[in-house]
Amino acid sequence: MARVFAQTGQQDEATECWYQALTLEPNWAKPEEHVKLGNRLWSLGKPDQAITCYRQALQLKPNLLQVYYRLGEILKSQGKMEDAIALYQQAVENNPRNHQAMNYYRQLVDSNPNSSAKDYHQLGQLLRGQSRFKEAIESYQKAIELDPCFKRAYVDLQYTWIESEQLQQLITFYRQCIEREPDFPLAWGNLGDVLTEQGQLEEAISCYQTSAYKKAVASNPNLAEVDWKPKKEHGPDFVIIGAARCGTSSLYMYLSRYPQIMSPHKKELNFFSKYYNQGIDWYLAHFPSITDTPNFLAGEASPNYFDCTESAQRMFQFFPKVKLIVLLRNPVDRAISCYYHNFYHGREKRTLEDALALEKQRLQTLTESELLQTGYRHPNNLLGSLYVYKLKRWMEIFPREQFLIVKSEDFYSNPKIVMSTIIAFLGLSD
Q: What are the residue boundaries of the structural domains of the chain, listed by start?
């Protein structure tokens, strides 16, 4: 019928027939045909029907960038800003390296007066995935301006590359955050981080101590009535040393929920790998001083320690009795997870196949002895999964009874049972 109308010059009737036919059998047509029909319906003043055609085209072929743009424009014209934002977000996720898609998305979020902290946080994550770190930081800051206690934005700022020229602006920003929310621990901790990068260690240490105190009191208000030592003197009771992409974040989160365990403002302190030259006082400032009493435990989780060739000796020098927790995952799964983690954080631009092939070629040139002495290298997909070489370094220094090695798959499938084992290892009651 549609062809008959078309042959007789009745294009409007033909368009309607094509629409009805493709609504009943959407897979009958190619994506481009859905787009063509959508364009025709849009020109006829039938936006809702055009939307249906465009969405069907995207379902069949998600990388049609111009269709996202046209569909987004229609949704904007209808006042459906949230739907348009969600659509452009989908465009970026389906075209993660396409800067034009990102620019559409960012313009829409910026132009929408109702954009939320969550919208800007999501924008920041996607910008970071394109290695647009400066813009990502600006988006995270906007999220915090809209919601001064938006935790995820503070956390993602901790894991975003900061240019040296941005440090002073971030210091000013965090000071303003503290003026608005003086009891928010993450603001104090993040201020300490950027002060550290500027070499202002004395003030950074003070910020970390304030953050640790406020975090502890927020979780247990009764601690405000207790006399606190001015600074912590003893080391952490436990450290989750690795491996990266094996569930260390989940384990850290679980442990942080126990009332006897107190954690710093962020998961990864990286003192024994990256920040060793800042000094032991800098490290201890991250932990509440009240954890020097028998009633509480302190711990951190820095999976980079597992890869760093110097971390074990450094840690043993200061804290020879510390308990060490290691999570190990199926090495193939870990390697793939590591690649995608770096990809979505803007640190990897190659395909999975190219990244693994390059790393495999490089590793094949190393001897057994060289593998034992090899620390973190980028990419770390395959190297990070060669657990035996890393464990050997650590177990040559620390007694084996101070290790608890957990299979990640057991932790994922039976968290309650595994957590009971970990809590017992730490000397706590479940």
A: 162-226, 228-425
The model carries a pTM of: 0.89
SS (H, E, C) 130-195: CCCHHHHHHHHHHHHHHCCCCHHHHHHHHCCCCCHHHHHHHHHHHHHHHHHCCCCHHHHHHHHHHH
Count CA atoms closer than 13 A to 157's CA, side-chain side: 30
Name all contacts of 250-258 with Cβ < 8 Å and 24+ positions apart: 250/411, 251/301, 251/325, 251/327, 251/406, 251/411, 251/422, 252/300, 252/301, 254/415, 254/419, 255/299, 255/422, 258/423, 258/428
Are the C-beta atoms of 322 and 237 separated by less than 8 Å?
yes
- Going by C-beta distance under 8 Å and a sequence separation of 6 or more, which residues neighbour residue 430? 419, 420, 423, 424
- For residue 215, give the 3-state DSSP assignment: helix
Q: What does the DSSP assignment read for 33-98? A: HHHHHHHHHHHTT-HHHHHHHHHHHHHH-TT-HHHHHHHHHHHHHTT-HHHHHHHHHHHHHHSTT-
Both tokens assigned to 348: 């990897």
Measured between alpha carbons, how far is 381 from 179 in angstroms, rounded to an integer? 42
Which residues make Cβ contacts (< 8 Å) with residue 304, sequence separation at least 6?
242, 244, 268, 270, 273, 274, 311, 376
CA distances from 189 to 135, 286, 287 (A): 22, 8, 11
Closest CA to 263 of 237, 282, 234, 241: 237
Residues in the chain: 430
Q: Which amino acid is at 397?
A: I
Asked: is 162-226 a CATH 1.10.10.10 domain? The reply is no
Low-confidence residues in the chain, pLDDT < 70:
1-28
How confident is the model at residue 9, as a pLDDT?
42
Q: What is the DSSP string of 272-297?
A: TTTSGGG-HHHHHTTS-GGGGSTT-E
pLDDT digits (tens, 9 = 90+) for 26-37: 666 788 888 888
Q: How far is CA 290 from CA 57, 263, 295, 320, in A?
A: 60, 12, 9, 21
CATH topology of domain 228-425: Rossmann fold (3.40.50)
